[in-house]
């Protein structure tokens, strides 16, 4: 019982010191996007971009706009993988699309998670996995585009350099 008490004290001290507020304990990213365009357009743009970047061709100029692989796609859900051309790390990507405003707008809840369990810091790579698809597909210019995330939801989001990752 005494060891449990000390463990609780240590966890509280770690939390108050800022260790528990730094973000995820595993390299990952969660982003919410909002658009004033129908989900079928968002879906088509994302699936098309994933398929466009399936080869190494996008890696030749640097960055990681390549080696995406579509796992499955339905009108409301897209699953893909991204493999880093540098270290062959694999990240799992999911997009959940939810229409609103009588189907004229779309809310996208996206997640990218490193497959390798021990990766804690990723230089924003999981954020870039998602953002690069949004930007490459032109959705960052879509009507009503809004992005919501933070360093707490997204490993190293504020220092991400998506021209590299």
Descriptive labels:
single chain; 165 residues; alpha+beta; TATA-Binding Protein; 3 helices; globular; MprA_tail
In a few lines, what is going on in this structure?
By secondary structure, the chain is an alpha+beta fold. It has helices at 2-16, 39-52, 125-136, and strands at 28-35, 68-74, 77-83, 90-100, 105-114, 146-148.
What does this structure look like?
Keywords: Signal. It is a single chain. This protein is of the alpha+beta class. The protein has one domain: TATA-Binding Protein, CATH 3.30.310. The protein has helices at about 1-15, 40-50, 125-135, and strands at about 30-35, 70-75, 75-85, 90-100, 105-115, 145-150. A six-stranded antiparallel sheet has the order 2-3-4-5-1-6. Strand 2 (about 70-75) and strand 3 form a beta hairpin. The protein is globular and about 45 Å long. The model is unreliable at about 5-20 (pLDDT under 50).
Tally of individual helices? 3
CATH architecture: 2-Layer Sandwich
Q: What is the overall pLDDT average? A: 87
Tell me the name of the CATH class.
Alpha Beta
Signal peptide: 1-22
InterPro entries: MprA_tail (IPR021206)
Keywords: Signal
């Amino acid at each position: 019982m005494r060891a449990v008490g000390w463990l609780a004290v240590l966890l509280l001290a770690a939390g108050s010191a800022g260790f528990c507020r730094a973000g995820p304990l595993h390299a990952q990213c969660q982003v919410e996007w909002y658009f004033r365009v129908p989900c079928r357009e968002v879906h088509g743009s994302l699936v098309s971009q994933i398929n466009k970047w399936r080869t190494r061709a996008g890696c030749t100029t640097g960055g990681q706009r390549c080696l995406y692989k579509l796992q499955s796609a339905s009108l409301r859900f897209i699953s893909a993988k991204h493999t880093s051309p540098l270290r062959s790390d694999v990240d799992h990507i999911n997009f959940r699309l939810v229409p609103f405003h009588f189907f004229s707008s779309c809310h996208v809840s996206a997640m990218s998670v490193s497959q390798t369990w021990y990766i804690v810091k990723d230089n924003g790579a999981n954020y870039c996995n998602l953002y690069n698809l949004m930007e490459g597909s032109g959705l960052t210019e879509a009507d009503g585009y809004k992005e919501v995330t933070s360093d707490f939801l997204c490993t190293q989001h504020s220092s991400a350099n998506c021209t590299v990752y």
